[in-house]
Design a protein that fits this description.
Elements: H1 2-55, H2 60-63, E1 74-78, H3 86-96, E2 100-102, H4 112-126, E3 134-139, H5 158-173, E4 178-183, H6 190-205, E5 209-215, H7 220-229, E6 236-238, E7 260-262
Parallel strand pairs: 1-2, 1-7, 2-3, 3-4, 4-5, 5-6
C-alpha cells in the first residue's frame, strides 16, 4: 500500500513538473516573440529618425519612394477588420511609431476611408509630411469582394476595374500617390492577370504608384509567368503567414527581396 502511494505520488509530481515546464516554455516563447516585435519596431523608429536628421528635407525622388528604407526590416500596421475603430487605431499606431500601413480597396474587410482619416489626423497633430508615411493598398478582384458593396463598376473590364480601384483608394486615403500597390490575389485566368498587371505598370509609369506587387500567390508557376511577362517586375510579394512563413518568392528570381512584416 505504501509502495503504491509512493508511485502515485511520484507520478503526480512528474505530471506537475512536466506541466510546469511546458507552461514556462510557452511563456518564454511568448516573451521572445514580443521582444523580437519590439526590436523591429524600435529599429524602424530609429531608421526613420536617422533619415530625418541626416538628410533634413529629403529630395523629391527619395520622398516619393517606398524604397527609402529597403533592405531593412519594417513593421507594417495592418488595418483589416478594425471596423468602427479603424480611424482611432490607425491614429494611435502613428503616435506609437508605426510609419508603414497596409490596407485594401475591399470594403468587405477594410475601411480604407477611415484609414485615410486616421492618418490625416495623426500627421496633422504630429506635423508629419506625406513622405514620413508609407501606404500600401490593394486591388481586390471581384471574387474577393462583397457583391453588395463593390468599390468599382463590375461591368467594366478587369483592367478598368483595377484603375478605378486605385482612384478610389487615393481618394479614400487622401493622397496623390501610393507607395505600394498590390494585386490582392491572382485572377483565375492568365489573360486577366496580365491585363491587370499592364494597368499596374501604367500607373507606375505615371508615378501614381511607386511599387507594384502581388499577394496570396501560392502557385509558383503563376508567379513565374507574371515575372517573365512583366515589364515592371513585381518588387513586393505579400504572403499569408497562416499558410507559410513570409517566404519571399522574389528570392527565386532576383536579388531584390522585400523585407516587410505585417502586424
Amino acid at each position: 500500500m505504501v509502495k503504491v502511494s509512493k508511485e502515485l505520488s511520484n507520478s503526480v509530481a512528474m505530471v506537475t513538473v512536466n506541466t510546469s515546464t511546458r507552461s514556462r516554455n510557452r511563456l518564454l516563447a511568448h516573451y521572445m516573440l514580443l521582444a523580437a516585435s519590439l526590436g523591429f519596431l524600435l529599429l524602424t523608429i530609429r531608421i526613420v529618425r536617422s533619415d530625418k536628421s541626416s538628410t533634413g528635407i529629403r529630395s523629391k525622388t527619395v520622398v516619393r519612394s517606398a524604397r527609402i528604407q529597403d533592405g531593412r526590416p519594417h513593421l507594417i500596421y495592418g488595418t483589416a477588420w478594425k471596423k468602427d475603430e479603424t480611424s482611432r487605431l490607425v491614429k494611435e499606431a502613428v503616435k506609437a511609431g508605426f510609419r508603414f500601413f497596409d490596407t485594401a480597396c475591399q470594403p468587405k474587410h477594410y475601411d480604407e476611408a477611415a484609414v485615410g482619416k486616421g492618418l490625416a489626423k495623426a500627421m496633422k497633430e504630429m506635423k508629419l509630411k506625406r513622405a514620413d508615411i508609407s501606404i500600401q493598398t490593394k486591388f481586390t478582384p471581384l471574387s474577393g469582394q462583397d457583391p453588395k458593396n463593390v468599390p468599382y463598376h463590375t461591368e467594366n473590364s478587369i483592367g478598368d476595374q483595377a484603375k478605378e480601384s486605385l482612384m478610389v483608394s487615393m481618394k479614400n486615403l487622401q493622397v496623390d500617390y501610393i507607395d505600394s500597390w498590390i494585386l490582392h490575389s491572382p485572377p483565375k485566368s492568365n489573360e486577366d492577370l496580365m491585363e491587370v498587371w499592364r494597368v499596374m505598370e501604367e500607373m507606375a509609369n505615371t508615378q501614381r504608384v511607386i511599387k507594384i506587387g502581388i499577394s496570396n500567390c501560392y502557385d509558383i508557376e503563376v508567379f513565374r509567368l507574371l515575372y517573365k511577362q512583366a515589364k515592371h517586375k513585381p518588387n513586393v510579394s505579400k504572403t499569408n503567414s497562416s499558410k507559410s512563413v513570409d517566404v519571399c518568392l522574389l528570392s527565386n528570381f532576383s536579388d531584390h527581396c522585400p523585407s516587410f512584416f505585417e502586424l
